[in-house]
Design a protein that fits this description.
- By secondary structure, the protein is an alpha+beta fold.
- The protein is built from four helices and four strands; from the N terminus they run αβαβαββα.
- It has two domains: about 30 residues; about 90 residues, Glutaredoxin.
- It has a four-stranded mixed β-sheet, sandwiched between helices.
Length: about 130
C-alpha cells in the first residue's frame, strides 16, 4: 500500500511540475519581443538594406530576430499575416502581436530610432550617434 501511495505522489508531483513549466513557458512567450524581417533575395532594396539591418541589429545582441524570405511559402504566409505589403519590411512583435512596422530601405539612424521607440531592451552599450539619422 505504501509503495502505491509513493508512486501516486510521484506521478502527481511530476504532473504538477509539468503544468507549472508549461504555464511559465507560455507566460514568458506572451512577453517575448522580437524583430521579424521580411525580405527577398531578388529584391535590390533588400540587398542594399541588409548590411544596414545587420549592423543595427548587432547593437541589440539579446534581441530575437526571425527572417522571412517571401520565396518560401511558409515565410510568405507568416509575412502576409503580419501585414507585409513590401520588401524589405521590419516588424516589432510583442506577445505575438505586431507593435509597429517599418517598410523600405531606410538609413541606419531611422531603423535604430524605430527599434528604440518600440523595444523594451537597451542597446548593447556601443557608442552610437543617436542623432545621425541620415
Amino acid at each position: 500500500m505504501r509503495i502505491c501511495a509513493k508512486w501516486l505522489w510521484t506521478i502527481a508531483a511530476c504532473l504538477l511540475i509539468t503544468i507549472l513549466a508549461a504555464w511559465s513557458w507560455q507566460a514568458a512567450k506572451a512577453n517575448e519581443e522580437k524583430v521579424m524581417y521580411v525580405y527577398s533575395d531578388s529584391c535590390g532594396y533588400c540587398q542594399s538594406f541588409r548590411p544596414t539591418f545587420e549592423s543595427v541589429l548587432a547593437e541589440y545582441p539579446q534581441l530575437a530576430v526571425e527572417r522571412l524570405d517571401i520565396h518560401d511559402d511558409r515565410d510568405l504566409a507568416v509575412a502576409l499575416d503580419l501585414g507585409a505589403e513590401a520588401t524589405p519590411t521590419v516588424f516589432v512583435v510583442k506577445g505575438g502581436q505586431v507593435v509597429d512596422k517599418l517598410e523600405g530601405e531606410v538609413p541606419a539612424g531611422v531603423l535604430r530610432n524605430f527599434l528604440q521607440k518600440n523595444l523594451d531592451i537597451p542597446l548593447s552599450g556601443r557608442n552610437v550617434d543617436r542623432y545621425n539619422i541620415l
